[in-house]
Every structure is written in structure tokens, then in C-alpha cells.
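task queued by scheduler; priority normal; single chain, no ligands, no partner chains; default sampling; output format set to C-alpha cells
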Amino acid sequence: MIGRKKLEERFITIAEARELLERRRAEGMEENPEEPMFYEAKISLEHAEKFSKLPPEKAMELKERLIGLFEWLDERLAAKIVDIMPGDYFDIRVIFAKESYMPGREEAEEIIKLLDEYRSLD
């Protein structure tokens, strides 16, 4: 990594990662059609295709809605919630198990209600 530096850092969902990797594969096809991606990128893309639950646009929208709904929810946790799409209060408790804040049952129900709006899209 000589000569490279981190320009920015942000947390993204698996769906957003899939979109970035697909874009990189398309660029790689133009540069080298025989080997458009490194092995690690191929494996990452396969994983993202298998486990992403929403289209990238909807995943970003849901993440932003979650962050806007709860002031205590950061981008990292919102992305994790979108990736996992928990179905009940106990699933949400697992996500927040090592966090300093544990949402109450009412907050968890609000999160689940919002996620239910997006479940039919996967």
C-alpha cells in the first residue's frame, strides 16, 4: 500500500458494496476482459450477491431513515440493521449486545415496522 492513503471512511451496507464491486468489475472488463477483478474482489462480490437483501438505492434510503428516526443510531449500526434485517426484538437485542445503548421494546418495534416496509423488496 505504498503511496496510498485513505481519503474517507464510511460504513456501507452489503447492497452498497455489491454496487461498488459490480461497477469495478465493469471497469475491469474494459481494462482486462480475461481477468477483470482480483480474486478477493470476486469472492467479495459473490458474498454480496448472495447476502444483500435490498437493492442498493433502497438500502441507502432505509439506512438514512433509520438514522433520522433515532438520534442515538449511528451509521455503523444502521448499516448492520439493514444488512441483517432483524425480524423481532430479540434479533435487535443481539445486534446491540455489545453497544452502550440498548433500544427498548417500543424503539425495536418502530425499527421492525420500518424494516417491514422494505422486506417485500428483497
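post-processing summary
- The chain has a mean pLDDT of 91.
- The CA atoms of residues 5 and 72 lie 30 Å apart.
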